[in-house]
UniProtKB/TrEMBL annotation:
GO terms for biological process: L-tryptophan biosynthetic process. Residues 4-254 form the Indole-3-glycerol phosphate synthase domain. Signal peptide: none annotated. The keyword Lyase applies. The lineage of its organism: Bacteria, Pseudomonadati, Bacteroidota, Flavobacteriia, Flavobacteriales. One of its GO terms (molecular function) is phosphoribosylanthranilate isomerase activity. Pfam families: IGPS. CDD domains: IGPS. Belongs to the TrpC family. This is Indole-3-glycerol phosphate synthase. Transmembrane segments: none annotated. The gene is trpC. Pathway: Amino-acid biosynthesis; L-tryptophan biosynthesis; L-tryptophan from chorismate: step 4/5. It catalyses: 1-(2-carboxyphenylamino)-1-deoxy-D-ribulose 5-phosphate + H(+) = (1S,2R)-1-C-(indol-3-yl)glycerol 3-phosphate + CO2 + H2O.
Length: 259
């Protein structure tokens, strides 16, 4: 069993447990539930930098990235830096995140927030909305076409945008549907953790222009972004590169100003 399979097994257990404790009615009573969402896809289309900055404490491939920042410091720094949106990891076991991180981010900034999570159930989309997210991530590698359709339709019914993540041609072909806003190509193979920008380059031409193209993972330089822009990419998700510094906001500011 690879790491991705393990995460999904744990996630399904976690969702069953949470459903037994927090009823849907409680999520729907959240102050954020009626809040109008902010569009990341619009921000990316109209941006010159296209940076989606990430709050990420650790990951399975890098045990610890940074535990010294508060969510407020990081997200405020990203907003001040001119990021188009912020990705907030909410998985606890493997990434050291939580839904509280999303809530604190929402209380701090007024730019689009992505709930970065392994979504396997509509309940998690309700959680995302209740904690102030503007969009969700769906990962094609762990979902069937039918699941992608059901989950993306449900997200849209709540006013949330959908970023779908793919890693290869097969995942892309099974996933394309009108209920997606953005298609992200993960440059990191989630099964082997190998990273290469070639994944983004190879898939670019296969992604219809109706979707905003996003390149994710392994982007650590201005050169990488300049290399990907001619392929039609409008969004660039960067986490580790900013989080591993002493000041994520400052690192993002310097990076974006160079762009």
């Amino acid at each position: 069993m690879n790491i991705l399979d393990k995460i999904i097994v744990d996630k399904k257990r976690e969702v069953i447990l949470k459903k037994s404790i927090i009823p849907v009615s409680q999520l729907e009573a959240s102050v954020f539930f009626e809040k109008k969402t902010i569009s990341l896809s619009d921000n990316l289309r109209n941006s010159t930098s296209g940076i989606i900055a990430e709050h990420k404490r650790r990951s399975p491939s890098k045990a610890e990235i940074n535990y010294s920042f508060s969510v407020e410091e990081v997200t405020k720094g990203y907003e001040n830096a001119g990021a188009c949106g912020i990705s907030v990891l909410t998985d606890g076991k493997y990434f050291g995140g939580s839904l509280d991180d999303l809530l604190l981010a929402r209380a701090t900034v007024n730019i689009p927030l992505l709930r970065k999570e392994f979504i396997v159930d509509e309940y998690q989309i309700l959680e995302a909305k209740a904690h102030g997210a503007d969009l969700i991530l769906l990962i094609a590698a762990v979902l069937t076409r039918e699941e992608i359709k059901t989950l993306s339709e449900f997200a849209k019914s709540l006013g949330l945008e959908v970023l779908l993540e793919v890693h290869n041609q097969e995942e892309l072909e099974k996933s394309i549907m009108p209920t997606l806003d953005m298609i992200g190509v993960n440059n990191r193979n989630l099964k082997t953790f190998e990273v290469s920008l070639d994944f983004s380059k190879q898939l670019a031409a296969q992604i219809p222009n109706d979707f905003v193209k996003v390149s994710e993972s392994g982007i650590s330089s201005i050169e990488a972004i300049n290399e990907l822009k001619p392929f039609g990419y409008k969004g660039f998700l960067i986490g580790e590169n900013f989080m591993k510094t002493d000041n994520a906001g400052k690192a993002a500011t310097e990076f974006i100003s160079k762009l």
